[in-house]
């Protein structure tokens, strides 16, 4: 699955007073048809994309589907398969933030409403980068609730992951063969000195929390104590063990140069730049969860030479091929995003209007060098990889084939399988 994305981030800053809307900043709301043209110019068939949650989910039971109806109808007409991103770093003002215990159920209701309105959609990322969302909102104090505490982080994390799990359940009721592609940040923390080994080990254990809970995996003992000490109850923990849906999932993971960190003795961290790289860190995640992999985000600034992003694309693609060559089922790659981003250099914490040249296209919708390179990469590899795959093909139904008899049969078979799962899936002890 060669993919790109149109980011629908909507975190709030300034104590909730200011909404940072990346679709607005990238001019997507008024240029979405041009954006879809750009996708087809590259030869991309898969798009990480979703409606802006704050503009669509107006109140309990109240939705504004106008934008979604227009854009998803056009994606379907063009036979571009969306990977639907329902919640990206923020919630509507009336929900507040991720400390709200009502958020999981409210979000699940929204996911159900979306799945009912767009039954032809099969691929979902219900909540984007759950770990990063909780860290930036409640541990670093950057977004939304802007807290800086372990209690705030655990509260945000349990609500975010529960929302994701409940949304998956609701979508499966309406689309039994739905596939969920987690887009989660893949992290690693390097100890700067012997005295930093302890803090680094703690952070390297904490990085797995969102996916452990999402996939119903028992957390490590130190992390169990951490969760219990910071507000998670046994009942809440057992909810995750009892809702194991990993059989419907692809482990999508994101990697940027900023995903590796240098840890010092006092616990503070800085970016280490690329040390291990995508393939080694992804191997750690795959060893833990044993799921097919998709590289769901990467990019690099196009610098003064004009080839910096092109070289990064080549390097990340080489990492993807390395994973496949050692037998790790890797089913997709994503350059993120389609167009340049705004204020990514401050992680959306400030509204400076800085255009970061990270996209396949600039904000005038002119193709960048990396866009040309990605187009050629897709042309070169699209027909080669399926023949050399080490795993079964992902059973994806393109929009144009939704009503084909084979697609209907697949949904019926998935519905029957969901109603009668294997015995071991009922027992969290075997997770």
TrEMBL record:
Pfam families: Glyco_hydro_1. Keywords: Hydrolase. SUPFAM superfamilies: (Trans)glycosidases. One of its GO terms (molecular function) is hydrolase activity, hydrolyzing O-glycosyl compounds. One of its GO terms (biological process) is carbohydrate metabolic process. InterPro entries: GH, Glyco_hydro_1, Glycosyl_Hydrolase_39. PANTHER family: ALPHA-L-IDURONIDASE (PTHR12631), BETA-XYLOSIDASE-LIKE PROTEIN-RELATED (PTHR12631:SF10). This is Glycosyl hydrolase family protein. It comes from Sphingomonas ginkgonis. The lineage of its organism: Bacteria, Pseudomonadati, Pseudomonadota, Alphaproteobacteria, Sphingomonadales.
